[in-house]
């Protein structure tokens, strides 16, 4: 199933992200995570492309596990570390096992490294164009409600996003955000810039204080004071922080749905228990 068809039908779609392990010994454990998440019947499950593009086989294998559980899979694919022929091979391998949705990304440039020269795509838009020209795949891409950290301005980032969409993007997924006003503002600006594809809003339940440092480092997402108060009060108390984090994400999603956002993507961080709680909290709202 093409994910874009799913995202444009009526109804509310709650999807999930999982990540693959770094080493083979932990693949079975990751499969268990995938099965646990798939059992929640999300709209689809996305599987990240890990460790600087070194483990595409794990992304493929977990995507297969997702689909064997009866849920569409979205395999992430980055281009910063791979040449075009490797990307072609990864796509062939995905197609062979029946995975036909990809999230086309540039990938993060490792600190201190310059962009590799030669047979590489420099931006995700080029990867999007390549995959669309090849054919056979529904192609998603990333977007950043607060602007990508490297972009000179939010306006420039939006121009580049429009160019990426024009290269053939079928749908977008946002970076995580913790203040819904940021998302509403972004959706308005994106629409005004001519971005017409479905946008899935990325929500991450923050259930321990350690995740916060990681969020700040990776996404640069602004943490609203309401969120900071929760961390200040409960950050040192794991059980309370978990409960408050699930409640915060649940509230965020309810507000998004109440304001007409129909596609929401949950960054599960491979926490089946947390995803279960969020889905449970939204049961009636999701029509279950
Ligand atoms: P791009 O769209 O190429 O944008 C990157 C930067 O380049 C932006 O600042 C943009 O404004 C700028 N830019 C774009 N086009 C041009 C141009 N023509 N000229 C000049 N500047 C330009 N990383 C992983 O390694 N694995 C994953 O699985 C993964 N999954 C992700 C999923 C989501 C939903 C998101 C939001 C991010 C994910 N990432 C993942 C992180 C992502 O790889 C990084 O955020 C990366 O830094 C940018 O990727 P991109 O595809 O958005 O790049």
Could you describe the 3D structure shown?
The protein is α/β, with parallel strands linked by helices. The chain is 46% helix and 14% strand. The protein has 11 helices and 8 strands. An 8-stranded parallel barrel has the order 1-2-3-4-5-6-7-8, surrounded by 6 helices. The relative contact order is 0.13. The model has no long low-confidence stretch (mean pLDDT 94). It binds flavin-adenine dinucleotide. Flavin-adenine dinucleotide binds at residues 48-49, 76, 78, 103, 105-108, 123-125, 142, 148, 150-151, 157, 160, 164, 173, 175, 202.
Brief sketch in words of this structure:
This protein has 288 residues and is of the alpha/beta class.
Q: Structural class, from helix and strand content?
A: alpha/beta
How many β-strands, per DSSP?
8
How many separate helices?
11
Q: Supply Rg.
A: 18 Å
- The poorly predicted ranges are none
- Give a quick account of the main beta sheet: strands, pairing sense, barrel closure: 8 strands, parallel, barrel
SSE layout and pairing:
Blueprint (H helix, E strand, L loop, with lengths): L2 H6 L4 E6 L8 H12 L6 E3 L8 H13 L4 E6 L5 H13 L4 E5 L18 H11 L3 E6 L10 H13 L4 E4 L5 H13 L6 E5 L5 H10 L6 H10 L3 H21 L4 E5 L4 H10 L7
Parallel strand pairs: 1-2, 1-8, 2-3, 3-4, 4-5, 5-6, 6-7, 7-8
Helix pairs in contact: 2-3, 5-6, 9-10, 10-11
Bound molecules: flavin-adenine dinucleotide.
The site of flavin-adenine dinucleotide has 22 residues, from strand 3, strand 4, helix 5 and helix 6.
């Amino acid at each position: 199933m093409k994910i874009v068809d799913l995202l444009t039908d009526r109804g509310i779609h709650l999807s999930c992200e999982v990540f693959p392990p770094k080493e083979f010994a932990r693949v079975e454990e990751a499969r268990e995570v995938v099965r646990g998440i798939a059992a929640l019947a999300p709209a689809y499950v996305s599987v990240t492309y890990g460790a600087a593009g070194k483990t595409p086989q794990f992304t493929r294998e977990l995507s297969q596990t997702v689909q064997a559980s009866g849920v569409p899979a979205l395999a992430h694919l980055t281009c910063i570390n791979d040449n075009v022929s490797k990307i072609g091979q990864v796509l062939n391998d995905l197609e062979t096992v029946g995975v036909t949705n990809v999230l086309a990304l540039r990938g993060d440039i490792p600190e201190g490294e310059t962009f590799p020269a030669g047979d590489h795509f420099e931006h995700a838009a080029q990867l999007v164009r390549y995959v669309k020209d090849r054919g056979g795949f529904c192609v998603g891409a990333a977007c950043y409600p607060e602007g990508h950290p490297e972009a000179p301005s939010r306006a420039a980032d939006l121009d580049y996003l429009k160019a990426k969409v024009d290269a053939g993007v079928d749908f977008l997924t946002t970076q995580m955000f913790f203040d819904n006003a940021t998302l509403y503002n972004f959706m308005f600006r994106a629409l005004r810039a001519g971005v017409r594809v479905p946008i899935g809003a990325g929500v991450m339940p923050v259930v321990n204080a350690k995740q916060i440092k990681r969020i700040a480092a990776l996404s640069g997402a602004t943490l609203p004071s309401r969120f900071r108060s929760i961390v200040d009060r409960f950050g040192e108390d794991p059980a309370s922080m978990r409960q408050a984090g699930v409640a915060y994400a649940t509230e965020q999603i309810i507000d998004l749905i109440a304001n007409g956002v129909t596609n929401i993507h949950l960054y599960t961080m491979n926490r089946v228990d947390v995803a279960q709680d969020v889905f449970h909290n939204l049961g009636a709202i999701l029509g279950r």
